[in-house]
Every structure is written in C-alpha cells, then in structure tokens.
Amino acid sequence: KWREVDKANEKRDFTFSQKSLHVKIQTMPSFDVAYVRHKGYDRSIQKAWLKLQDWALRHGVEFSKQRMIALHHSNPRFVESSQCHYVACLELPSHQTFYRSAEIGVMKIPQTFCAVFSLQGVYGDLKKYMDVIYHEWFPKSEYEKISLPSFAIYRENHFINANERFDLDFCVPVRFK
User: Fold this and answer.
1) 82 CB contacts (<8 Å, ≥6 apart)?
2) Domain spans of the chain?
3) Is 25 helix (H, G, I), strand (E, B) or coil?
4) Which whole-number Å values give the CA distances from 81 to 22, 45, 75, 113, in the listed order?
5) Distance between CA atoms of 71 and 82, rounded to whole angstroms?
6) What is the pLDDT along the chain (177 residues), one digit of tens a residue?
7) How many CA atoms lie within 13 A of 24 on its CB side?
8) Neighbours of 27 (CB within 10 A)
9) 45, 51, 47, 89: which is closest to 70 by C-alpha?
10) In this structure, are residues 24 and 116 in contact, taking their beta carbons and an 8 Å threshold?
11) Which residues pair with 117 in a beta bridge?
12) Predicted model pTM
C-alpha cells in the first residue's frame, strides 16, 4: 500500500507550491442541503450536479439561485482519484421542508470552525491546491484538520460551467494543535 502513496506523490505539480494562499480562519454556518453521493474525482462528477438540477426543477427550487457546496471526503494524495468520495450539495430554501427522494438525500452540514481558502482555477487545479493546503500549509500552521470532511462553497462551479473554471471557498474544518 505504501508504494501507491509514493506513486501518487510522483504526479505532484510543484508549481502550485509557489502560489500564495489567501486564508481566513472563521466559523462557517450550518447549511441545510439536498445531496447526491459520487465516487470518483473526475469529470463524471458533473452527473451528480445534473441530478441535483433535475431534482431542484421537480421540487420548485431555483437551482441557479442556491448555494452549491461539495463535500470532499478523500485526500487525493492517498486515495486514487477513481476511489475518492465526493458529495454534491445544493443549499435548500429555508421557507420549505424537503424529504429524501430516490438517490437525493437531505441533511444539515454542521456549523464548523474552518480554515477558508479562496481559490480560483480550472478543472484539475483544485486537487493541486488540496495537496498544497494539506501537505504544505497545515504542517507550517498552528492548526490541524479534524475528521469532518473539507467542503467547497462554489461561486463558479467548474463541473457545470462550459469553460471548466471555478471560483470557490475551500473550507477545511480545523482546531488548534
């Protein structure tokens, strides 16, 4: 198993180590969301977002006006991209009650104390940023990641934008070391 980790490290893009990270430490609010689970970190994630769009249309939710959030359960340095667990989430309007239907679940993302990184890029860049955050920024910081998943709050979602660009806040739940 350790050889797989070394193999993953060989693919690192060291140019991302030179990019400056804009980070704020803050408490993020809780979010009520509809969600779709997805296995694999690649362009097939788009299918999860399309399922949420379809669900939103059928439930009277304006997809484009709702906040899009993605839970990242896996560290791509240690987990092969095809095995990474990703959850596409759509924040729900507060004036309505929603229930699970088929593969669309409903849950509350809890309020969390986070390191929040404002990031922009194109498809493929987020995994590189994650590597720098987890393996370069954290060891030098006074914080450590806790066991809750990191999450992205999208202003632009590269999985549904034709230009594959993203603009997001990458939120990593933390505590002091």
Assistant:
1) 39, 40, 41, 42
2) 2-176
3) strand
4) 26, 12, 9, 27
5) 16
6) 444 444 444 455 556 666 788 999 999 999 999 999 999 999 999 999 999 999 999 999 999 999 999 999 998 888 998 999 999 999 999 988 999 999 999 999 999 999 999 999 999 999 999 999 999 999 999 999 999 999 999 999 999 999 999 999 999 999 999
7) 6
8) 9
9) 89
10) yes
11) 23, 170
12) 0.90
Q: Return the closest-CA partner of residue 129 out of 7, 6, 20.
A: 20
DSSP-assigned letters across all residues of 86-122: EEEEEEPPTTS----BTTBEEEEEPPEEEEEEEEEEE
Tokens of 119: 């990031």
Instruction: Give the SS3 label for residue 26.
Output: strand
CATH of region 2-176, choose from 2.30.130.40, 3.20.80.10, 3.30.200.20, 1.25.40.390: 3.20.80.10
